[in-house]
Amino acid sequence: MTRDTRPSPGSAVDVSDERIHWNPDLSYSSYLCLEPLLSLQQPRSQAHDELLFITIHQASELWMKLASFELASAMQDVGGGELGSALKKLARVSRIQVLLTESWNVLATMTPSDYSAFRDSLGESSGFQSYQYRALEFRLGNKNPTTINVHRNNPAVFEMLTRVLAEPSLYDLVLRWMRNKGFDIPAEIVERDFSVPYVAHPAVEAAWLKVYSDPARYWDLYELGEKLVDVEHQFQLWRFAHMKTVQRIIGFKRGTGGTSGVSYLLRALDLQFFPELWTVRTSL
């Protein structure tokens, strides 16, 4: 009869027989650069919640770095006609957005009094100044040239944002691919000044209606359309959670960077990246 060696509920797991390796040249800590990473949280006050505020925003920047990496790679795939690979990366971007949205729920545990205790330590710094967020929005299609002016004092960042602003967005590349595949997408849509926002066009909605009316025939585009909708859906949830968290903590005060705060964030909720993918649902 075999003896049951499973640990009883609540008992400690015995690791004495586990062959756990240790290489001083490359450990978990050194691979992840944990020492420098964990030294970067530097509160400027004695307020308890400032560490929470810093951690949430630093972690968000790391997730946005990954989202931008995946999105840029997906755009390259779409440009090369590799839709299958792009679908996987866009799905990952959506899941990253879920984590970013959840981060606002953690920050929302901070009360107005908690925030007031260290708000002066922020000076004029603001999330509006996040260049990673700006590049992410540009690649998704929210093109606004005036938003990069705040980065003029950082030549490398300003040059990067200027370049991304002028490049085709994800949706521009999708529409170009559809035109190359024979869909009736007007040339002026795929050959335009990409530094200005895309404007919805009836011909584009008609093309998507063709796809959505016969998904079996256009399965690759149908699936791509749904992945785009999911990305925008999650992005809007992130925006909404951001707005409600700011409203919960500071009400309708102006933001530290000079924006109108909640009022500015409310206006952002009206923006759309892929408009015809939403309006086509009414036409079906």
Textual characterization of the structure:
The chain contains 13 helices and no strands. It has helices at 28-31, 34-38, 50-79, 83-107, 112-116, 131-140, 155-166, 170-180, 187-190, 202-213, 219-250, 262-268, 275-283. It is mainly alpha-helical and 284 residues long.
Average pLDDT score: 92
User: What is the succession of H and E elements?
Assistant: HHHHHHHHHHHHH
Roughly what percent helix?
Answer: 55-70%
Q: Strand tally, please?
A: 0
* Percent range for β-strand residues: under 5%
Outline:
The chain is mainly alpha-helical and 284 residues long. Helix content is 58%, strand content 0%.
Topology (SSEs and partners):
Blueprint: H1 28-31, H2 34-38, H3 50-79, H4 83-107, H5 112-116, H6 131-140, H7 155-166, H8 170-180, H9 187-190, H10 202-213, H11 219-250, H12 262-268, H13 275-283
Helix pairs in contact: 3-4, 3-6, 3-8, 4-11, 6-7, 10-13, 11-12
